[in-house]
Amino acid sequence: MTRVHILATGGTIAGTARSEVDPGYRAGGLGVGALIDGVPGLRSVATLTGEQFSQLGSQDMNDDVWLRLAARVNALFSANEADGIVITHGTDTAEETAYLLHLAVKSERPVVLTGSMRPATALSADGPLNLFNAVSVAADPHAWGRGVIVAVNDDLHSARDVTKSSTTDVQSFVSPGAGLLGTASYGHARYFRRPTHLHTNATEFSLDGKDFLPRVDILYAHANMPVDMVRASASLGSRGIVIAGMGNGNISTGVAQALADIVSSGVVVVRSSRVGSGDVGRNIEIDDDGLNFVASDQLNPQKSRVLLQLCLAHGLNGGAIQDAFYRY
After folding, report:
1. End-to-end CA distance of the chain
2. At what angle do helices 301-313 and 94-104 cross, to 10 degrees?
3. Which of 186, 133, 140 is nearest to 156 (CA)?
4. Using an 8 Å Cβ cutoff, are 270 and 263 in contact?
5. Percent of the chain clearing pLDDT 70 (strictly above)
6. What are the respective helix, strand and coil percentages of the chain, to the nearest 5?
7. Would the pLDDT of 300 be above 90?
8. Domain 3-202: top CATH class
């Protein structure tokens, strides 16, 4: 049987509440053994091993955990200890973790993130079937070479495209524009496409030997946005700023000038959008060439931050960073 290793990081899928209908819960309360034992038939899908990698709500996910997680995934594959890996994860930052691994894992073997919108103790908990489908996809030879996959609510998403769209709806995860990678129904996967951008073995990013990622801040643009937020971010040591801009990544004239000032001191500025879908085009309403800004293309602010961190960690600058946003 195919060998699938489960790395449990916590999250709602391992959450516990005082009753089956209590909306409040404690994330990460259950261990990996309880998650596996709570899914009937799971051990018939693959030869399973489990590891409690961390036990936190994904709102507490951080760069240190990311670096260790990427290193662990790469180590498992390089030592040929698993044919596929499933990561159980909270939904709040699942898309960011998935995208980081999508760029930094160096293997064609499947890595599948899954989680749930309801805790394990809830009435009609969605976690068990999500985990069953995730293990099935990780064990599926047709999943090889598709990068990191997010498997939730019978849908399969590419890590580059997926985003959380609702605070509480079980059908929270969507892939705006690009659409689904495929579907999974009680362990039976169908694939519609392959990722269109470079990932895993095809990227220039390796986290081997990295013990930190450069600080990159996200600033949310709005009417009458104060320019001192830009200056504060730069003064506190940020090496990059991602603007969650209005519309097509737009910002006010004053904010644009403040950003241009810090670019001249070596801080990289990426324009993304607070809008839920669509591209951020270069030189549309903002003179990116003249101001030396980077346009995020299709990446939302949180994924723009991940990619910019990797670019800065690998010494990319200027046009090479803009090219990375087109390629990845």
Report:
1. 33
2. 30
3. 133
4. no
5. 100
6. 30, 20, 45
7. yes
8. alpha beta
**Same CATH fold assignment for domains 3-202 and 216-327:** yes
12 is catalytic: yes
Taking the C-alpha atoms of residue 124 and residue 325, their distance in angstroms, rounded to an integer, is 40
Give residue-wise pLDDT tens across range 80-124.
999 999 999 999 999 999 999 999 999 999 999 999 999 999 999
Provide the H-helix boundaries in the chain.
32-37, 63-78, 94-104, 127-138, 228-235, 253-263, 288-291, 301-313, 319-327
Find out whether 55 and 14 touch, Cβ atoms under 8 Å.
yes
Radius of gyration of the chain (CA): 20
**Nearest-CA neighbor of 74 among 212, 211, 207, 197?**
207
Q: Where are the domains of the chain?
A: 3-202, 216-327
Summarised one tens digit per residue, pLDDT across range 241-251 is 999 999 999 99
CB atoms within 10 A of CB 301: 22
- Phi then psi dihedrals of residue 104, to 5 deg: -115, -15
pTM of the predicted model over 0.85: yes
Token output for 171? 């059908």
Cβ-in-10-Å burial (0-12, 13-18, 19+) of 239 comes to middle
Catalytic residue among 12, 88, 93, 163: 12
Q: Which of 75, 130, 131, 133 is nearest to 104 (CA)?
A: 75
Scan for tokens 């997680």, then name that residue. 69
* Residues 57, 327: Cα–Cα separation, whole Å: 31
Question: Can you read off the two tokens belonging to residue 159?
Answer: 């890590």
216-327: CATH number: 3.40.50.40
Six-digit token string for 68: 């260790």
